[in-house]
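User: quick one, fold this
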Amino acid sequence: MIANAKESARRLGVDTLDLLYSHCNDPQVPYAEQMEALKQLVDEGVAKAVGISRIGNEDIETAHRILGGRLVAVQNQFSPVHRDPEHTMEACEKLGLAFVCWSPLGGFLDPFNEHVFDRFREVAKAHDCSYQRVTLAWELAQYPHLFTIPSARNPHEIEDSFQAVALHLSQDELEYLS
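Assistant:
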């Protein structure tokens, strides 16, 4: 991990990485040991801050205990289809960490869970916008330190994602969608 991070900084042509994400844990190495390696990278100036991904609350607490203020972000899947990380968001809020959700629009939907977005489509119709925009606006309203990583296939979808920030959903709409 240490050699890879240093090599990444070299390839990018920077002395220090602003944010170093650990996206996958090595099951062969104890989690605390992996966090110690990340701490070493920050202490050596290879990275300014650390983000961790695909973890539960216990691992967040371990990482926070070892990294302290160097840990700034947690990245997990979150969408109307995948709401499991809601407890993780609470842990992040308690510790002052950003929560970064990947696949915020549900990823690859199948007929089994497509119905989840029916209410989002209904609210979108009332706002004359896409259900994707409503979905992102709903997610942003869930947690004050939430950032989303929506995918986009064209410039229109990128613009639609940005417009979600300006979309105000009423309290009734938020409750209806929750």
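User: anything notable?
Assistant: Strands lie at 17-22, 47-53, 71-77, 98-102, 146-149.
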